[in-house]
Specification:
about 270 residues; alpha+beta; five-stranded antiparallel beta sheet; 7 helices; 11 strands; about 25% helix; elongated; binds zinc ion
């Protein structure tokens, strides 16, 4: 499963235990690139730097340093951070060693991930961030905001919720789940979604994300173990991948394809 926002959030929280306030003593860059080249100054900038905080924007993890630079990572399709691995493997492309002696290895077998160094003061202007909409867990996302963003739009509400310019970091699973909980037909023209429906949708988006983050957090104890891996956990969804299964309303979950991707929904209760 591709890492989604909750996996990135859980990864950042796990990394913070080992990095926040810590000095990076050594940096190993073991290949020139992932999806794109590692910054040439990566090792030089990070070696000896102190981590001043961690964060997340959309599906990017942020590691802020006292060098006025932020390491921005994306896990791509298969990336994960390994904490204190028993041994390093050929897919551990970037390895940070803290002054306290912890090894943090960014492992990415398929190499669809990325690592960048961005001027901390200008993060919001960095091209991948510049056009992003509000965070789904932040205060800017409100029913009124969505009403304005959807105004006059005839595209299906499901597709617009996946548009990162409208809401940042929402992936296919969470959009399906949130629409299912809010009882909104994923095929509905976004501009026709009523304010009461959007008042169900916003808390549903927050709830599905928060529940997944908490499910990931409950596996946080694994982080302290050798070969502990951050970023992936099992979570049961109500609609996702449940084609043909009964809905609590008495209907049956259906799968359709929208924009080339599967949508699971209940045609009986999602209107
Ligand atoms: Zn139903």
């Amino acid at each position: 499963m591709v890492p989604e926002l909750p996996e990135v959030e859980t990864t950042v929280r796990g990394l913070a235990r080992f990095l926040d306030g810590e000095r990076i003593a050594r940096v190993a860059v073991n290949r020139p690139d992932l999806r794109r080249a590692f910054p040439v100054e990566l090792a030089q900038t990070l070696t000896g730097a102190t981590v001043t905080g961690l964060g997340r924007r959309a599906k990017y993890g942020l590691i802020h340093t006292d060098r006025l630079a932020t390491l921005v990572f994306h896990l791509g399709m298969s990336g994960r951070w390994r904490i204190d691995p028993e041994s390093l493997g050929k897919h551990d492309h970037l390895v940070l060693e803290t002054a306290a002696g912890h090894l943090l290895a960014l492992c990415d077998p398929r190499r669809f991930g990325s690592v960048d160094l961005v001027d901390t003061a200008r993060l919001e202007e960095w091209p991948p961030f510049a056009a992003l909409g509000p965070e789904p867990l932040g205060p800017e996302l409100s029913p009124e905001y969505l009403k304005r963003a959807f105004e006059g739009r005839v595209a299906a509400i499901k597709l617009l919720l996946l548009d990162q310019r409208i809401v940042a970091g929402l992936g296919n699973i969470y959009v399906c789940e949130a629409l299912f909980r809010a009882r909104i037909d994923p095929r509905k023209a976004a501009g026709r979604a009523s304010l009461p429906a959007l008042r169900r949708l916003v808390p549903a988006i927050r709830a599905v994300l928060t529940e997944s983050i908490e499910a990931g957090g409950s596996s946080l104890r694994d982080y302290a173990q050798p070969s502990g891996q951050l970023g992936y956990f099992a979570y049961n969804f109500d609609a996702y991948d449940r084609e043909g299964e009964p809905c609590s309303c008495g209907g049956t979950v259906r799968r359709i394809v929208q924009g080339g991707r599967s949508t699971w929904f209940c045609p009986r209760c999602q209107r």
